[in-house]
Amino acid sequence: MRISTSQFYESSAANYQKNFANAVKSSQEASSLVRINTAADDPVGASRLLQLGQQASMLDQYNANTNTLKATLGQTESVMTSINNVLQRAKELAIGAGNGTFTDADRQANAEELGQIEEQLLSLMNSKDENGTYIFAGSKGDTVPFTRNSDGTYSYNGDQVTLDLPVGDTMSMATNSTGWDVFQQAINTSRSQVIMTAPAVDDGRVTLSNGQVSSNVTYDSKFRSGEPYTVTFVSGTQLKITDSSGTDVTTEATKSGVFDPNSAVGQAVNFRGVELNLNINLQPGDNAAALLPGHSFTLASTPDTFTATRSAGNPSAAQITSASISNSANYHASFPSGSAILKFTSATAFELYAAPLTSTSRPVSTGNIAGSVATASGVSFTLTTPPGPSANDQFSISVNTHQTQNILDTVSQLKSALNAPTNGNPTLMQQQQASITAGIANLASGNDRLSSALSSVGGRGAALDTQAQINQSLSMANTQTQSSIRDSDPAAVMTRLTLQQTMLQASQLAFSKITQLGLFNKI
Q1: How many structural domains is the chain composed of?
Q2: Taking each helix axis from N to C terminus, what angle separates 104-125 and 407-419, rounded to the nearest 10 degrees?
Q3: Burial code of 474-499, b = ≥16 C-beta within 10 A, e = fewer?
Q4: pLDDT tens track of the chain, all 523 residues?
Q5: In angstroms, what CA-CA distances link 149 with 138, 258, 390, 446, 464?
Q6: Sheet of 296-301: strands edge to edge?
Q7: Which domain holds residue 505?
Q8: Helix ranges (DSSP H) in 98-174
Q9: Residues contacting 146, CB < 8 A, separation 6+
Q10: Which of 24, 144, 179, 435 meets the CB 3.0–4.6 Å disulfide criterion with 136?
Q11: Does residue 469 lie in a domain region?
Q12: Is 101 found in the same domain as 60?
């Protein structure tokens, strides 16, 4: 087999070019110490680097989210701590007002400071973050969370949505605490009411305070099932309690309904999770056995109340002036819990929906106005007339079950109680004392709820620190793994480069020898 000179030449040239390319590539690698520049350099390694790069990007985003969360939680904790300090001062004022030596002027001075505390609380609860977003409004960051109603009560205008950010592959964390959860859900310990039914004219001998809930479990499981109760004095030392069916349940009360008319301590009654205080006001020479029998009271949970707000875009100027339960069975059976929408389809026809109203919502009740009253699901709404409603009018109806109470309402009610003069009247003083006791209990409940929210913020902060450390470890491992795949070993590169340069020199020498084998070089 013959090999021509041209074949020798082409083979040597190709070998030289190959060695030259290898030497150039190794030289570049020695300069950058990067082994993989394109997928062709190492297909498997390049694929792995792509995956690691995506993970690194996610870890960077988690780090950014962590920094955002830390800033938000820090600001939230600061505001909550300020609110907690303000509530503590309100509690001190309430306890001080219960001092028997305080005059009406002293209590009114405390009430004036409570008014300032009320305004301070409202401002703090409507705090904004550095972006101008309301901290406690849920997902409705551009809506003022708490506003004062015309009757002095307060409404929450935000929602119950927490905004979550991912801080790990399988972990997300809430950036906010909603005002609904922190300030609206404090247990209302004063959610039962007492009404005197006999005698027709109050003789001032006996008062029975609105009950304070001492056990939510017992209250919900036993008290609510038997209301309304009738409390009757059958002697100067014995009262009788019957439930709504007329069953005598006195044995479930403290000392089976026995009380001491001459001792304030002996006039406390605990019944089915509710603490009641009797106040017997006997004058010198009065006979309890002759004067107390015949006094009776009804005892029941405070009925639900409603706040109606007209929509800004209503065609008419009609307003809902009052609302009350007219049919308890219908109300409990179908009225939406929390909030509802009353929508008019004409000047007389209306529909009731559960809030929020969407394109797929179905009415839970329909009807027509009778006079100026629209009755839907057992609740009667009185509207102004004229002008009456028109088609497409909508009203937002919020329901207050009194199971919980906004801390702003607690402070406002306490302020009103301290502002009311008693002028030394024993009955008014007892009523005021009962209001102060209720205020102190509800402030304590609000403090408990706020403390729980603060613990939640602290717990999220601690979990965030732990997750940040985990992310940092993952990021370091990611960087090291990428480096092990992408970067070159300097010693190995230099050894390979030296070998390739030697081979290049040999191929250059061989090529130069072959180029001299031509015929003209022999002439």
Answers
A1: 4
A2: 160
A3: bbeebeebbeebbebeeeebeebbee
A4: 455 556 655 666 666 666 666 666 656 655 555 666 666 666 776 778 678 778 788 888 889 899 889 989 999 999 999 999 999 999 999 999 888 788 899 999 999 999 999 999 999 999 998 888 999 998 888 999 999 988 888 888 888 888 888 888 888 888 889 999 999 888 888 888 899 999 988 888 888 888 888 888 899 889 988 999 999 999 999 999 999 999 999 999 989 999 888 877 668 889 999 998 888 888 887 888 888 998 999 999 988 888 888 888 899 999 999 999 999 889 988 999 878 999 999 999 999 999 888 889 999 999 999 989 999 999 999 998 777 899 999 999 988 888 888 999 999 999 999 999 988 788 788 888 888 988 999 999 999 999 999 999 999 999 999 988 888 888 888 888 876 666 565 666 667 667 766 766 666 666 666 666 555 555 5
A5: 20, 44, 25, 20, 39
A6: 192-198, 296-301, 229-233, 239-242
A7: 1-33+489-517
A8: 104-125
A9: 122, 125, 126, 136, 154, 155, 156, 157, 179, 183, 406, 408
A10: 179
A11: yes
A12: yes
Which residues fall within 8 angstroms of residue 135, CB to CB, at 6 or more apart? 75, 76, 79, 127, 128, 129, 176, 177
For residue 77, give the CATH number of its domain: 1.20.1330.10
Residue 39 lies in a domain: no
Could you tell me which residues come within 8 angstroms of residue 85 by beta carbon, excluding any fewer than 6 positions away? none
Concatenated DSSP letters for 200-260?
Answer: SS--SSEEEPPPEES-HHHIIIIIHHHPSEEEEE-SSSBEEEE-TT--B-GGGBGGGGB--
Number of residues assigned to the chain:
523
- Rg of the chain (C-alpha set): 40
3-state secondary structure 176-200: CCCHHHHHHCCECCCCEEEEEEECC
Helix (H, G, I), strand (E, B) or coil at 346: coil
Q: Flag whether the pTM goes above 0.85.
A: no
Contact 390, 315 (CB under 8 A): yes
Is residue 317 domain-shared with residue 291, that is, in the same domain? no
Is 446 among the domain residues?
A: yes
Give the integer Cα–Cα distance in Å for 79 and 162: 18
68 and 183 assigned to the same domain: yes
Domain boundary among 302, 335, 353: 302
- DSSP secondary-structure letter at 34? B
In a domain, 241, yes or no: yes
Residues 256 and 135 in one domain: no
Amino acid identity at 446 = G
User: Are 242 and 297 part of one and the same domain?
Assistant: yes
Does 133 share its domain with 145?
yes
Residues 251 and 297 in one domain: yes
What's the CA gap between 95 and 433, in Å, rounded? 10
